[in-house]
Amino acid sequence: MNEHQRSILLHSASRFSPPPGVKLSYGTAGFRADASLLESTVFRVGILAALRSIQTRSVTGLMITASHNQESDNGVKVADPSGGMLSQHWEPFADALTNAADPNTLLQLMDDFATKEKISLEGAYGGEVLLARDTRPSGVFLAEAAKQGITSIMGVSATDMGVMTTPQLHWMVRSRNNGMEASEHNYYDQLSSSFRCLMEYIPQGNRNNIVNDKLIVDGSDGVGGEKLEILKKMLSDLSIDVRNRGDGVLNEGVGADFVQKEKVVPRGFGPVDVGFRCASLDGDADRLVYFSIQSNSNKIVLVDGDKILSLFALFIKEQLNILTEEENGKVNKSYQARLGVVQTAYANGASTHYLKQLGLEVVFTPTGVKYLHEKASEYDIGIYFEANGHGTILFSESFLCWLEGKNNELSSTSKGSEQPKAALRLLAVSKLINQAVGDSLSGLLLVEAILKHMGWSMLIWNELYHDLPSKQLKVKVVDRTAVSTANAETVVVRPVGIQDAINAETAKYPQGRCFIRPSGTEDVIRVYAEASSQEAADSLANSVARLVDRFLGFNATE
Ligand code: G16
C-alpha cells in the first residue's frame, strides 16, 4: 500500500481501538456482541467490505444488526456481491482484522492479505459498499464507524441506505451487481408485482375460496413491521394487520425466535385473535414463522420453517409436474429440473419424513444460512429452510432460461391450458422470493399466495404432517468453543465422552433424537431434543442440558 493510503489508515484506525481483552469471531451470522464492544469491529468490517468490493470489482454490503438477539446487542456482517453471505474463505481474515491489537498490526495484516489475494490498495478501482442498519439505537454510532472504515480505503465510497431489513440490503447488493435498479421502491415493486401475478393465476376453482383473509403479523418491534406497512399498501388481495411495529422493546416477548422457541402467544396478541392466521418476523426480518392461538390458553400452534419449506416444495413440485405432464399423448421431457431441499439437524423428523415421501431429495448441512444457501445452489431449484424460519428458494440461471423459453413457446401453442400458467407461476416465484437470502416479507407473500392457490386454511396446511414433540434449551458454559461437532452437527467430537453420554440418555426415549451445538450468535450451548411425547422431549432436553453443565458448566466435573 502506498504512503498516502497508509497514513489515512493509521490516522482513522487510531480513533477506533479494540476493547482490551475482547476476542470476537465471525460466527454464524457475522460478529455479534454487546453493542458497546463493537465500534472498532464495525470500523474494521467497513475496511473488509471495501477490500472485498475492490477485489471483486463489484458492490458489496455491510449490515449492522444483531437480528434475534436482545436489543443491547448488535452485530455486523458483510453481503458478498452475489447478495449472499461473505465468502467463507474471508472469515479468518475478518477474525484477524477485528482482533488486531493496534493500527500497525492491522496494516501489516492488510498488506499481507492484499498481496495474497491480489487486491490493489492504490485507489485505482472505485469500489462501493452499501451500508444499512436495523432499528437498534446503537446502530446510529456503529454506522458512523462503518463509514469511517469503508472510506478509509482510497477510491471506495459508502452509500448509506439507512434503516433496512437485512434481506433488503442483500437484495439491493444482488440487484446492483446484476445491473438492475435497486432502490427500496424497486424492492417493493418487484415483490408486489410478482405477488399480483401469482394471484392472477390461481386455479379457477379456488379463486373465490375464502381463505380467512386477515393475516396478523408480529413485527418483533423491529424494522420488519414498518417495512411491511409500506409493502401492504401496494397489495390489494391481502388484508394485513401489523402489530409490534417498534413501540415496545425489540425481540422482548415478541418475534419469530421467541414464538418458535417458547411456543407461547407473543406480546400484543390475545384471545380476540383466536381463529386468525398469525405470523412473526424477527428483529431484522430475515426469519418467518406462522402460528395460531389456542383458545383459553397462552399456547400457540406453531407452523415453523419446516412447514413453510414443505408448502413451498409441494407447490413447486406441482408446477413442475404440470410442465412435464403428458401433452398430446407425449411426455414433455425437454428439461428434467433437479429439485432439492436442504435442512439442518433442527428440522423436525416428521418434516424430513414427509419431504422424502413426496419423493424429494433431502440433504443436511450445519446450522447457518451460509451453509444451506451454498448447498441449495447446486440444484436447478433448491429450497432451503431452517426450522427457525430462515430460508428461501434458489433457481439456476439455466432453468430460468429454459422456463422463459417454455413460457414463450406455450403461450402461443397452448393458450388457456395449465402449462403456460405453471411456467408463469414459477417465473413469478423466482421474482417474488428473495434469492439473495431468507426474507420474511417475500416469504410471507409466497405463503399467502400458495395458500390461496391451494384454497387452504392454515389448519389444512398444518395437517400436512404432525410434528414430533420437541424442546430447545440453552446452557451457559465457561467456553462454548470447547464443543466441536461433525456430521451436520449431529455428533459431538469434543469434549470426548459427552456424545456417548447423550446417546445413552437418548436411547431411553421412544423416537428420541437429541444433539447439542455451540451457538454462533450467543454465548451458550444449544440443546435440541425430540421424542414421542412432549413430556419425554422436555425430559430428554433437561437431562442432556444437565450433561452439558456437568462437562462444560461453571462447576464442570468431567
Ligand atoms: C443466525 C443465522 C441463522 C442461524 C442462526 C442460529 O440467525 O443467520 O442461519 O440459524 O443464526 O443461531 P445460533 O448459532 O445462535 O443458534 P439470525 O436470525 O440471528 O441472523
From TrEMBL:
Enzyme class: isomerase
Residues the record lists as binding substrate: 386-388, 517-521, 526
Known function: Interconverts GlcNAc-6-P and GlcNAc-1-P.
One Pfam short name: PGM_PMM_I
Gene3D superfamilies per record: Alpha-D-Glucose-1,6-Bisphosphate, subunit A, domain 3, Alpha-D-phosphohexomutase, C-terminal domain
Superkingdom as given in the UniProt entry: Eukaryota
Cofactor binding: number and manner: Binds 1 Mg(2+) ion per subunit.
Protein name, entry field: Phosphoacetylglucosamine mutase
EC number from the UniProt entry: 5.4.2.3
Keywords tagged on the record: Isomerase, Magnesium, Metal-binding, Phosphoprotein
Binding positions (Mg(2+)): 67, 282, 284, 286
Residue ranges of domain Alpha-D-phosphohexomutase C-terminal in the record: 492-546
All copies of domain Alpha-D-phosphohexomutase alpha/beta/alpha, residue ranges: 57-89, 120-177
Molecular function GO labels: metal ion binding; phosphoacetylglucosamine mutase activity
Keyword Membrane: no
Coiled-coil features, chain-numbered ranges: none
Protein's pathway: Nucleotide-sugar biosynthesis; UDP-N-acetyl-alpha-D-glucosamine biosynthesis; N-acetyl-alpha-D-glucosamine 1-phosphate from alpha-D-glucosamine 6-phosphate (route I): step 2/2
Similarity comment: family membership: Belongs to the phosphohexose mutase family.
